[in-house]
Specification:
globular; mainly beta; about 120 residues; single chain; eight-stranded antiparallel beta barrel; Lipocalin
């Protein structure tokens, strides 16, 4: 019985002690994508996450057409995240690989269908 209680105590303690991953910083990498309009492309992707409060974060990214802001959330598993842009038609599903590497994949449905993924590295400040 004492062992069971001790194990339960450790599980509760570990689940509450999990620190939320900090995404703030500049991230960059190569995006490989395919869309109905532009077909296969590879291009440099740069994003900046400039604000984070617990699991919610804000940022922007630059691309050939300009700059776009986004809002995101880290899931409770502290590994997966999502972001959307107020002017976008799709969304990003991402995964935290380690403290300096994330993967971000874009999915857009309907007539302008597009998909793409990039491995992004945190730039050293």
């Amino acid at each position: 019985m004492a062992i069971l209680f001790f194990t339960f105590f450790l599980l509760i303690k570990d689940s509450k002690a999990q620190k939320i991953f900090n995404l703030i910083g500049e991230w960059e990498g190569i995006n490989i994508s395919y869309s109905i309009e532009k077909e296969y492309r590879a291009w440099e992707k740069k994003i900046t996450i400039f604000e984070q409060k617990e699991r919610i974060f804000k940022g922007n990214f630059k691309y050939s057409g300009g700059e776009r802001n986004f809002l995101g959330v880290i899931r409770s598993n502290n590994k997966d995240f999502y972001w959307v842009s107020p002017k976008g038609k799709g969304y990003i599903h991402g995964e935290i690989i380690n403290k300096n590497t994330i993967e971000a994949c874009y999915i857009e449905a309907h007539e302008g269908a597009a998909v793409g993924c990039s491995i992004l590295k945190r730039r050293k400040q």
